[in-house]
Amino acid sequence: MLKVPELLDNLEAELKQIITERQLVNPLMIGIRSGGVWIAEQMHRRLAISEPLGLLDISFYRDDFSQIGVSPNVKPSELPTHVEGRDIILIDDVFYTGRTIRAAMNEIFDYGRPNQIVLAVLIERDGRQIPLNPDCVGTRISLQANQRIKLTGPEPLAVHLETLAAVA
Q1: For residue range 63-87, what is the model confidence (pLDDT) as tens digits?
Q2: Do the Cβ atoms of 144 and 161 come closer than 8 Å?
Q3: Percent of the chain whose predicted confidence (pLDDT) is above 70
Q4: Residue 159: inside a domain, yes or no?
Q5: Residue 153 bridge partners (DSSP)
Q6: Phi and psi for 19 in degrees, rounded to 5?
Q7: Full domain range(s) for residue 108
Q8: How far apart are CA 36 and CA 101, in angstroms?
Q9: Alpha-carbon distance 79 to 96, whole Å?
Q10: 160: which strand partners?
Q11: Residue 81 resides in a domain
Q12: In the predicted model, what is the mean pLDDT of residues 27-42?
């Protein structure tokens, strides 16, 4: 069983280290809706980031948009208008294929060209399809093809492992 408090502690420690190593100055933290926002809210408080937390909804940037259509729960992204030259910490709950992060970076670049982006995720699992890697992780796990991770929250935050039914 994955214990969220331990994962948050691990992620916080890695973020503190990379903030120092990469000399992030007044970073802007951005959470990807919805699970990434829940994790970002925790990290934003723990790291005492002074800038308001940015919220990103990547629905219109997904590469499967034409296949899945628009979700009725699309919410607007809330980013400062000025990201040009900024240090950004991008937060998501689970890193799987890399496609969500690619979509998030596409949207961020529509706002401007940041100085650097640090990617932090609560859980990195196997199954990468895009050549991206998180900089900071709470934990790394391997799952079977019929398993997935589900984060529920925001209070309390919990991680569940789900086994999907086999398709005949």
Answers
A1: 554 554 555 566 778 887 689 999 9
A2: no
A3: 89
A4: yes
A5: none
A6: -60, -40
A7: 4-65+76-163
A8: 11
A9: 24
A10: 150
A11: yes
A12: 95
Q: What total of structural domains would you count in the chain? A: 1
Burial readout 122-156 (b: 16 or more C-beta within 10 A, e: otherwise): bbbbeeeeeeeebbbbbbeeebeeeebbebebeee
Residue 137: CATH number of its domain? 3.40.50.2020
Tokens of 72: 């009725």
Closest to 57 measured CA to CA, from 35, 39, 42, 26: 35
What are the counts of helices (DSSP H) followed by strands (DSSP E) for the chain? Answer: 4, 7
Task: Please give the biggest Cα pair distance in the chain.
Answer: 53
Residue 113, strand partner residues: none
Task: State the amino acid at position 43 in one-letter form.
Answer: M
In the chain, the amino acid numbered 150 is K
For 112-154, write each residue's pLDDT tens digit: 999 999 999 999 999 999 999 999 999 999 999 899 999 999 8
State whether residue 41 is helix, strand or coil. helix
Backbone phi and psi for residue 161, each to the nearest 5 degrees, phi listed first: -100, 125
| pTM of this prediction exceeds 0.85 | yes
Say if CB 113 and CB 97 are below 8 A apart: no
